[in-house]
Specification:
By secondary structure, the protein is an alpha/beta fold. Among the domains are: 30 residues; 110 residues, Phosphatidylinositol 3-kinase Catalytic Subunit, Chain A, domain 1 (Ubiquitin-like (UB roll)). It is 51% helix and 11% strand. The strands form 2 sheets. A 6-stranded mixed beta sheet has the order 4-3-7-5-6-8. Strands 1-2 form a two-stranded antiparallel sheet. α1 packs parallel to α4 and α3 runs antiparallel to α4. The radius of gyration is 45 Å and the shape is elongated.
Length: 335
């Protein structure tokens, strides 16, 4: 305790006030113990530490300057009373919530019980006859008699009831079918396919590459570059990102796979997208307004060439592929 330096009367007054505060603190501790005994909750010091700290903090903040012992007691009692009232209110709210949960659970149990009671059951008739033939026993012996065996009535539909064995069998069957489907798709995607394409720089240069159905358009363009670079010098520094693949007048995005077009039997503006062999262009040997089932060689070209010539035929007919759009007829733009 720090020593007070000043007049003797002031030192005595300060000492007197300090003793009053110590006495008030002792009364707070006694009140705290009394609350612990009333509530009878285990480990109450940990649970209500925040409560008493808040009381003490509020008491300190509301006490400014020198106050009398009676004033401090009155403030202390008021603060503790308010805190106890709030705790009691919270406890009552929690108890009400818990009661609501218990009532909801009980209502659910009663509903399930009524559904089960709606089923009809047959008692074992043979056991009834055996019980009728036996002599009556003492009440002590009757308590030890096991309950009669109950079995379900086979005429009642119980398909709506939970059945663990049936659910496990369904899950097992679903998993087997899923694995079978995955293996089938993997084998189909692994099948080889020969794609005929034409490198387009204003005129066509037809080539072939062999790859798998599961390969993407981007992987296809990489293979095309490997085939074309020895013959076309402008492609030596080009990457697959700078190329476009146009099939049946549609610009195909790089992320699609050939399997996507095959499995959906997608169609373009001038023929099917799911056939990758080639025949003569119907626009050269037949009426251009008539659709044919023949597939045309897709065009591989530089994106820069398309940007320079997209206003000129045939680039003026090309448009990005839209899987939601249906091309029912072969049409020529402007007619």
């Amino acid at each position: 305790m720090a020593h007070y330096k000043g007049a003797a009367s002031e030192a005595g007054r300060a000492m007197h006030l300090m003793k009053k505060r110590e006495k008030a603190q002792q009364e707070i501790e006694l009140r705290k113990k009394k609350i612990e005994e009333d509530l009878k909750i285990d480990n109450i010091e940990n649970k209500f530490a925040t409560h008493y700290d808040a009381v003490e903090q509020q008491l300190k903040s509301s006490t400014i300057g020198l106050v009398t012992l009676d004033e401090m007691k009155a403030k202390q009692e008021h603060i503790v009373r308010e805190r106890e009232k709030k705790l009691a209110q919270k406890k009552a709210e929690k108890e009400k919530e818990r009661q609501k949960e218990i009532e909801a659970k009980q209502a659910q149990k009663n509903k399930q019980k009524r559904q089960i009671q709606a089923l009809s059951f047959d008692l074992d008739e043979e056991e009834d006859e055996d019980e009728a033939d036996k002599p009556e026993k003492d009440w002590r012996e009757q308590e030890e008699v096991p309950l009669k065996k109950i079995r379900k009535n086979p005429d009642v539909d119980t398909s709506f009831l939970p059945d663990r064995d049936r659910e496990e069998a369904d899950l097992k069957l679903r998993e087997e079918l899923r694995l079978e489907w995955v293996m089938t798709q993997a084998s189909l995607k692994d099948e080889p396919i020969t794609v005929t394409f034409s490198y387009w720089d204003g005129s066509g240069h037809r080539k072939n590459v062999t790859l798998k159905k599961g390969n993407s358009i981007y992987q296809f363009l990489q293979r095309c570059l490997d085939t074309l670079r020895p013959e076309f010098s402008e492609l030596k520094t080009v990457s697959a990102d700078q190329l476009m693949y146009v099939k049946e007048d549609l610009i195909l995005p790089h992320h699609y796979t050939f399997y996507d077009f095959i499995v959906t039997k997608a169609r373009g503006k001038s023929g099917p997208l799911f056939q990758f062999d080639a025949s003569d262009d119907v626009r050269l040997v037949n009426d251009a307004t008539q659709e044919k089932q023949d597939s045309h060689a897709g065009k591989v070209l530089l994106r820069s060439w398309y940007e320079r010539n997209k206003h000129i035929f045939p680039a003026s007919r090309w448009e990005p592929y839209d899987p939601t759009k249906t091309y029912s007829k072969y049409t020529i733009k402007g007619k």
